[in-house]
Amino acid sequence: MQKPPARSNSSGTDCLDINTPAGPHGISMKAWTTSYRAAHDARLLSQTLQLLNQRIINLQPALLAAKQEAEREAAGEARKV
Questions:
Q1: Torsion of Cα atoms, 28 then 31 then 33 then 35, to 10°
Q2: Is the dihedral angle over the CA atoms 8, 13, 16, 19 positive or is it negative?
Q3: Are 68 and 61 a contacting pair, CB within 8 Å?
Q4: CB under 8 Å to 18, separation ≥6 — which residues?
Q5: For residues 11 and 79, what is the distance between their CA atoms, to the nearest angstrom?
Q6: Three-state SS for 12?
Q7: What is the pLDDT of residue 25?
Q8: pLDDT tens digit sequence for 2-11
Q9: What is the maximal distance between C-alpha atoms in the chain?
Q10: Would you state the pLDDT for residue 41?
Q11: CB neighbours of residue 26 within 10 Å
């Protein structure tokens, strides 16, 4: 099969190779796959951030209680001295 002649005029689509076949291995599918993976990764990262933020919220009362207990123990030790 003979390739079509090279195009002499330039346009915004010069980065697309007109000889690249369409289909599952074409440039469009590769671009779509890359975009889909990026969107999927962004969604997973967003979910992870939500879970971590919820864990921080859930641990705040326990952290506050531990700090208060440590302060009580430190005050008790200071009174003994």
A1: -140
A2: negative
A3: no
A4: 4, 7
A5: 83
A6: coil
A7: 81
A8: 665 555 555 5
A9: 96
A10: 98
A11: 13
